[in-house]
Amino acid sequence: MSLEINDKAPAFSLVNKDLKIRSLDDYRGKKTILLFFPGAFTGVCTKELCHFRDSMSKLNDAKANVMGISVDQPFSLAQFAKENNLNFDLLSDATREVSKKYDSLHTDFINIKGLTASKRSVFILDGEGRIRYRWISEDPGKEPDYDAVIAKAAEIK
C-alpha cells in the first residue's frame, strides 16, 4: 500500500544528529517537510540539502519546518550538518523502518545486494499530519523540483 495525498502521515520517532529523540508528534499543528535522502556526504544529497538550507527564508515565510531523514548513523549526520551548515534537523532511520513506512526505501541500492538507502523523497504535511505533497524518485541522482516544493509549502494553510 502506498501513501497518497490526503493520507495521514505515519507516525515515527527517530534519533537526531544530536542523539535526541524527535517525533513527528513534535511538529503537530505545524506544516512539516520531510526530506528523505540516500546518504550524507554524497554529491546529489549535499546539493539537495544545501539547496533547502539556502531556501530556508522562503520556507520560513511559508511557516514550514524541515526534517532530513536518511539511514545514516547520527554521528555521520552530525558531521554532515556541521560541514554544510545545515539549519534544520537531520534524523537517523538506522532501522530503515520509517523509510519503509513512507515507501521510500531502496533495496539492493545501486545494484549491491543487501545495501539499503532512503529514496530521495519529499513529503509536505499540513498541521494535522496529512500528506499534501508527495514526490518519490526511484533514481537517486534525480533532484526534486525545488520551486514546486517551496510553492506547495507556501500554498498549504
In short:
The protein has helices at residues 43-54, 56-61, 74-83, 97-101, 146-155; strands at 13-16, 21-23, 31-36, 64-70, 89-92, 105-106, 117-118, 121-125, 131-136. It is of the alpha+beta class and 157 residues long.
> What is the topology, as strand order, of the major beta sheet?
2-1-5-4-3-8-9
pLDDT < 50 runs, ≥5 residues: none
The helix tally amounts to 5
Question: How many DSSP-defined strands?
Answer: 9
Which secondary structure elements does this structure contain, and how are they paired or packed?
Blueprint: E1 13-16, E2 21-23, E3 31-36, H1 43-54, H2 56-61, E4 64-70, H3 74-83, E5 89-92, H4 97-101, E6 105-106, E7 117-118, E8 121-125, E9 131-136, H5 146-155
Describe the structure.
The structure is a single chain. The two termini are 27 Å apart. The chain has a single domain, classed as Glutaredoxin. It is globular, with a radius of gyration of 14 Å. It has 5 helices and 9 strands; from the N terminus they run E-E-E-H-H-E-H-E-H-E-E-E-E-H. A 7-stranded mixed beta sheet has the order 2-1-5-4-3-8-9. Strands 6-7 form a two-stranded antiparallel ribbon. Helix 3 links the parallel strand 4 and strand 5. With 157 residues, it is of the alpha+beta class. The model has no long low-confidence stretch (mean pLDDT 95).
